[in-house]
Fold this sequence. Notes:
Elements: E1 2-8, E2 14-26, H1 42-47, E3 50-55, E4 61-64, E5 68-71
Antiparallel strand pairs: 1-2, 1-5, 2-3, 3-4
Amino acid sequence: MMLVVLVNRQTQKRQVIHDLESIALVDHDHEVHRPQYYIPNARQQLTAIAFILTRTHDDAVQYATQDWELRHD
């Protein structure tokens, strides 16, 4: 399981996400790629239109990459 920080690109508001199982990127053709078990690098995040975060005990949630960034800190 991972711990990541979700950062709003405009406001820089940070949200810590605990118990993250995987991250799946959604490309411009709206195809969902295989889940990853690490944080995608900045280039991967910007070439995708969204990412889907799957947590241990919650439903998966999708975030637009133009609005949000994932970080380790």
